Amino acid sequence: MTVNAPGEATPRRGWFDSVHKWAATAAAVVALALSLYNWSELKQPPRLDVTLPHLMRIGPAGTGTLVYFQPTLSTRFKAQDVEVITDARLRLAPVGSISSSKSPEFYWQGNGVPAFDFESNEIRIEWSGDPAPLIVSQDKPQQPMFQFQDDTWSFQPGRYEGSVQLSRSGGREPLTGSFCLIISKKAVDEMRGGDARGIYFFRNDLPKFTSSSRYGHCYVRETD
Fold first, then answer.
1. Is the CB of residue 40 less than 8 Å from the CB of residue 33?
2. Does 11 score more than 70 pLDDT?
């Protein structure tokens, strides 16, 4: 058995102390790097995602048209600032055989919320808020049901290319979600001949339509 002289560290002990110091230094560097990364991420502007719904609601409004659209506004990352949506616009452009037709000029009339009417056995949309700025953060996603209206325009059968454009505060670029909408003659006749307060559902996820190259993932009337 070997006995070390007093005050003489064994080679193994010296190696262990050296490794321990290097590990502690490396851990401190990693912790600092993570802190700097998190700090830089918090300083970044909010990165907002817009997810379009599978359902679009359309209804008459006197001589005009109402469109109810409920996208999901969210962010997966924390940020020091919040995102403020200052305005929302719906755009629809007739394409194909109706491309020469007039395009509607929708404006954001307000926000609504679906409610079941037991007397008529139908879904009604009730007012829930004015067209006011919306605050979006990681812990506060939003699902507003935007109510867009054109006072004098009505649909005709055909295909429409559409988008929802959301203006943001701070001079940042607007966020846009694009979609397509196909209105059949049957759907137009149904809306024109129905209840003046009727609401008609169009979906973009019905298997009988998504399997067809003609429709793709466009919004189509459920009863077509």
1. no
2. no
